From TrEMBL:
Lineage, top ranks: Bacteria, Bacillati, Bacillota, Bacilli, Bacillales
SUPFAM superfamilies for the chain: Nicotinate/Quinolinate PRTase C-terminal domain-like, Nicotinate/Quinolinate PRTase N-terminal domain-like
A Pfam family assignment: QRPTase_C
The organism of origin for this protein: Marininema mesophilum
EC number annotated for this UniProt entry: 2.4.2.19
GO molecular function, one term: nicotinate-nucleotide diphosphorylase (carboxylating) activity
Protein name: Probable nicotinate-nucleotide pyrophosphorylase [carboxylating]
């Protein structure tokens, strides 16, 4: 992860929260008071986002010492300690909400991803994310998917060609869209096309494409499409996939399933910060 980008994201988050200062902490807590903050899992899940917590306290107070008890990608159960931070209580409290916001959201994404990955155990189908991410937080959210055992799809519009229904409508046909892309970009760029029907699947197979996204197809259509493709290109199922349907869709033989809700609708992992006040200044 680009450290300059991470610094900017965390800086903006801290600036948004702190504003002109933490009125409560600065009024109550002496500057010399030291302590320890314990990041505690209150629910079961998978940890992600340690890099954001590190950056929060690096920017607020380089003297804060962060000790990780669990790494990104580790499973946790209620009561497990995720990390400990030692230093100025003022710094620990001022950074608390921003650190927890990042850690809870990203751990929620990792946990949801791991839940789907676990359902596909024994299958070769991959769990993919999408570009349906929080504006400005895509790299962090995709890193959380990876921590949960998923595979990252395109990071942005410049990371491969994806010809979807609106592109096809604008180009006039699927064939014309692929031909235009290939004439402009050449053979080194991966091209994936979206197919809503078996007729489009057959048309795509006659073209120079690397992958086919099978969009909103039922199980019978997916099986027939996979049979028709017969391993000639990479296949991805998308649209309406839920935790209860993920395995049966994967069992149709597709190479991957893409799930927008991993990043656009995550349930945050419940994590608390418990403070221990120390009388003496830490050495």
């Amino acid at each position: 992860m680009n450290p300059l980008w991470l610094q900017e994201i965390v800086h903006d988050a801290l600036n948004e929260d702190i504003g002109q200062g933490d009125l409560t902490t600065e009024a109550l807590i002496p500057a010399e008071m030291m302590g320890e903050a314990i990041f505690l899992a209150k629910g079961a899940g998978v940890v992600a986002g340690h890099e954001t917590v590190k950056e929060v306290y690096r920017q607020l107070d380089p003297q804060v010492r962060l000790h990780l008890e669990r790494e990104n990608g580790d499973r946790v159960e209620p009561g497990m300690v995720i990390a400990r931070a030692e230093g100025s209580i003022r710094s620990l409290l001022i950074g608390e909400r921003v650190a927890l916001n990042f850690l809870q959201r990203l751990s929620g994404i990792a946990s949801m991803t791991r839940g789907v990955v676990d359902q596909l155990e024994g299958l070769t189908c991959r769990v993919l994310d999408t570009r349906k991410t929080t504006p400005g937080l895509r790299l962090l959210e995709k890193a959380a998917v990876y921590a949960g055992g998923g595979v990252n799809h395109r990071f942005g519009l410049g990371h491969g060609v994806m010809i979807k229904d609106n592109h096809i409508a604008a180009a006039g046909s699927l064939s014309q869209a692929v031909k235009q892309v290939r004439s402009r970009l050449g053979h080194m760029v991966q091209v994936e096309v979206e197919a809503d029907t078996l007729e489009q699947v057959k048309e795509a197979l006659s073209l120079d494409v690397d992958a086919i996204l099978l969009d909103n197809m039922n199980l019978d259509q997916l099986r027939e499409a996979v049979h028709c493709i017969d391993g000639r290109v990479w296949t991805e199922a998308s649209g309406g996939i839920t935790p209860t349907t993920a395995r049966e869709i994967a069992q149709t033989g597709v190479n991957g399933i893409s799930l927008g809700w991993l990043t656009h609708s995550p349930t945050a992992l419940d994590i608390s910060l418990d403070l221990i006040v120390k009388k003496e200044v830490l050495s």
